[in-house]
């Protein structure tokens, strides 16, 4: 697809992996045994840190969307603020683009990639359409393994169940690994209210917890922060040296301050990447080792599972594990792929199966396949709007393309504007490892929201006119160029509701001079130093 | 109605239209060549791990320096004595001071450079994360070609805990700067040592 080829254009290749300023002598992380550069886990393939000059002119971190109850999120407003912080915006964009490039290289390294995507999509479709029986099978297997199984209709019930388990054990502290499901449930907030201390043990998630912010990305939660921001957060909350923004120092500080919590916690919790019906196993795919510590150190272990995570049999992990990390990070596998099936001797293991809107989503003809999502974030990394506006601008648990199609199922009014935060280039659909037709669902949501009057009448009128071209990315781009209605600088174009730029009532006073794609191409070429 | 009954009822009522049969998953040709040992080592190194042949007499030669510098060595293998008895550990947290842990892998995977452990190899699961460094014994004859082959093995359905390690604990959550030893081991070294 032409949209993808534009996006695929390589950026400038720098040779250093880590900025010499932050590399510690004798550190083995940067280079492998053979001396080659390492870029596994979430590692960037080249240095992406803000220019040293940026240290002197400190740019405050832009914050996320303003939440006003149920009122529609103004993503464009928050995105504007992100764009007004060029150091953050650039670092964010480049970092995610790097992940996207790593993903492409990994995918191209497997001849059967497209076949794997199709298989994964079919296995998920099958499981979802028989989810009742697979859940029953999972429950029976887990119980036979000595696991306590709980069912939660929504986030509140999940929180109450976990609280009750904790209370039964007199447990006051809980260490946990990253879980988008618990973010959905507002778990930390609830537990704080009942006096239970929650410690996030994933580095990115811990940064966000300490800064009282939501994760901005489902794989790299603090990707919108520079190391200067992290240094500020850690100095304020962990007592680190505020002037030391060495990434090694910061990471080590988190390790050292988290370890005592891990050793003393009463309970440990993980999320779930895959739940295997046949064996009752919970599978987590992580890099830091914190999920395995959460599951293997405390006496009480709890796994929170979204019901859509089911797969029928272990052997299908041979499909999904091969897709997940390659799509997410460009690595063939995560550092740890952990299969929790039963309690350790003398300990208790609980699994909480959480619905929280999933069973209802299954009944939405146009949107049920969004339940296939394995949360790899490839669609976010490839999305030009997401990369330039930051995950927090969406004001929802899930940002980026996947967020646009599942957030409205949680709250149609509040997230009514999100499906308009897309250029409809289709790149998300192209990279999705389970072949969700993301951009088509985005468009379908626009129609639903228009029909149900969640968007203003003016935009509704434009919907009709724009509908035909919006549905076809190539035609859409051609129309944008011809109408001369794109904005001079991509970000304003990208983050503004395309329907605004479409209509008579322009948001931007100056006459647009070039389209996003033309702009993008030019910027790319400038960076790579190539001739057009 | 309990949450369980309500969820199952809604799922039944909302079953998507159309047939969605489970596909037949073909056995894909491994991405790796016939020299599984070389392929395994190559992939493991790219994932930040280290690999060494047993050079003649002393299988622990490549990690001798690390072992000599260690105060506490917890060994789960008969080939090395260590000075912390895993079998008598009362609670996992007691292993927080382990410098080096030594364990044997059930098998390796050439496609990824991964090694598998279950609770049987680890004795105390947490030792593989609380230790500062992990040394893994792997029989070169135990290397499988790919992830797909690994998931046909019985260990996943039989063990309370089964884990694939691919290199050491790692993070790059800050600016993409790769760091080994996020919460778990700072290094993982595989020694190719046949089973006794
Ligand atoms: S929608 Fe697809 S690409 Fe996006 S996070 Fe989910 S699985 Fe990954």
From TrEMBL, chain A:
Residues 1-71 are annotated as: Disordered. The gene is lutB. The keyword Metal-binding applies. It holds the Pfam family LUD_dom. InterPro entries: 4Fe4S_Fe-S-bd (IPR017896), 4Fe4S_Fe_S_CS (IPR017900), FTHF_cligase-like_sf (IPR024185), Helical_ferredxn (IPR009051), LUD_dom (IPR003741), LutB/LldF (IPR004452), LutB_C (IPR024569), NagB/RpiA_transferase-like (IPR037171). It comes from the Bacteria. Signal peptide: none annotated. Residues 1-40, 53-71 have a biased composition (Basic and acidic residues). PANTHER family: LACTATE UTILIZATION PROTEIN B (PTHR47153:SF2). This is Lactate utilization protein B. Residues 364-385 form the 4Fe-4S ferredoxin-type domain. Keywords: 4Fe-4S, Electron transport, Iron, Iron-sulfur, Metal-binding, Repeat, Transport. It comes from Methylobacterium jeotgali. The keyword Iron applies.
UniProtKB/TrEMBL annotation, chain B:
The lineage of its organism: Bacteria, Pseudomonadati, Pseudomonadota, Alphaproteobacteria, Hyphomicrobiales. Coiled coil: none annotated. It comes from the Bacteria. Pfam families: LUD_dom (PF02589). Signal peptide: none annotated. This is LUD domain-containing protein. Residues 95-193 form the LUD domain.
């Amino acid at each position: 697809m032409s949209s993808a080829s534009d996006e695929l254009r390589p950026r400038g290749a720098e040779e250093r992996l880590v900025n010499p300023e932050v590399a510690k002598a004798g550190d083995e992380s940067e280079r492998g045994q053979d001396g080659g550069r390492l870029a596994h886990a979430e590692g960037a393939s080249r240095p992406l840190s803000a220019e040293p000059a940026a240290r002197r002119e400190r740019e405050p971190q832009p914050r996320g969307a303003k939440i006003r109850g149920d009122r529609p999120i103004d993503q464009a407003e928050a995105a504007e603020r992100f764009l007004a912080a060029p150091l953050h915006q650039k670092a964010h964009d480049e970092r995610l683009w790097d992940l996207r490039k790593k993903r492409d290289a990994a995918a191209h390294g497997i001849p059967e990639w497209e076949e794997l995507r199709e298989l994964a999509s079919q296995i998920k479709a099958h499981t979802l359409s028989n989810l009742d029986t697979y859940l029953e099978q999972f429950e029976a297997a887990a119980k036979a393994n000595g696991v306590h199984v709980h069912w939660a209709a929504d986030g509140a019930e999940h929180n109450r169940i976990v609280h009750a388990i904790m209370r039964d054990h007199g447990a006051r502290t809980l260490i946990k690994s990253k879980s988008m499901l618990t973010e959905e449930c507002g778990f930390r907030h609830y537990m704080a209210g009942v006096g239970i201390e929650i410690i996030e043990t994933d580095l990115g998630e811990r940064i966000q917890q300490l800064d009282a912010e939501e994760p901005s990305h489902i794989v790299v939660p603090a990707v919108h922060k520079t190391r200067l921001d992290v240094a500020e957060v850690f100095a304020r909350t962990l007592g680190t040296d505020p002037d030391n923004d060495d990434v090694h120092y910061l990471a080590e500080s988190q390790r050292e301050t988290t370890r005592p919590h891990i050793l003393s916690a009463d309970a440990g919790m993980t999320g779930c990447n895959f739940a295997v019906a046949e064996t009752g196993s919970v599978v987590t795919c992580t890099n830091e080792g914190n999920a395995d510590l959460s599951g293997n150190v405390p006496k009480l272990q709890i796994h929170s599972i979204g019901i859509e995570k089911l797969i029928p049999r272990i052997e299908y992990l041979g499909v999904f594990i091969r897709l997940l990390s390659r799509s997410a990070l460009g690595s063939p596998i995560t550092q740890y792929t952990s299969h929790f099936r039963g309690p350790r001797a003398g300990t208790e293991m609980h699994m909480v199966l959480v619905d929280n809107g999933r069973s209802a989503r299954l009944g939405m003809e146009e949107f049920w396949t969004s339940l296939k999502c394995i949360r790899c974030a490839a669609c976010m990394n490839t999305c030009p709007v997401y990369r330039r506006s930051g995950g927090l601008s969406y004001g929802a648990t899930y940002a980026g393309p996947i967020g646009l199609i599942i957030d409205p199922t949680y709250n149609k009014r509040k997230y009514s504007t999100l499906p308009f935060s897309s250029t409809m280039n289709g790149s998300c659909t192209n990279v999705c490892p389970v072949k969700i037709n993301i951009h088509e669902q985005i468009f379908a949501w626009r129609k639903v929201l228009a029909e149900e009057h969640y968007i203003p009448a003016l935009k509704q009128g434009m919907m009709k006119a724009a509908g035909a071209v919006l549905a076809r990315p190539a035609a859409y781009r051609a129309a944008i160029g011809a109408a001369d209605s794109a904005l001079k600088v991509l970000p304003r174009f990208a983050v503004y509701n395309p329907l605004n730029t479409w209509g008579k009532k322009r948001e931007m006073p100056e006459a647009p001079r070039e389209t996003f794609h033309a702009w993008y191409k030019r910027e790319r070429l400038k960076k790579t130093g190539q001739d057009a | 109605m309990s949450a369980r009954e309500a969820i199952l009822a809604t799922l039944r009522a909302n079953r998507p239209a159309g047939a969605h049969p489970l596909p037949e998953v073909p056995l894909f040709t491994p991405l790796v060549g016939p020299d599984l040992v070389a392929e395994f080592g190559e992939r493991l190194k790219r994932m930040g791990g280290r690999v060494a042949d047993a050079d003649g007499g002393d299988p622990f030669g490549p990690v001798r320096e690390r072992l000599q510098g260690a105060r506490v060595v917890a060994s789960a293998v008969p080939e090395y004595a260590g000075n912390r008895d895993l079998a008598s550990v009362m609670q996992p947290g007691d292993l927080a001071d382990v410098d080096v842990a030594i364990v044997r892998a059930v098998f390796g995977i050439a496609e990824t450079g991964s090694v598998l452990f279950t609770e049987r190899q680890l004795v105390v699961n947490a030792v593989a994360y609380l230790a500062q460094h992990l040394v893994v014994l792997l029989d070169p004859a135990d290397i499988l070609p790919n992830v797909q082959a690994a998931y046909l093995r019985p260990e996943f359905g039989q063990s309370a805990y089964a884990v694939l390690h691919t290199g050491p604990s790692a993070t790059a959550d800050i600016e993409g700067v790769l760091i080994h030893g996020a919460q778990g081991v700072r290094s993982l070294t595989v020694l190719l040592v046949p089973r006794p």
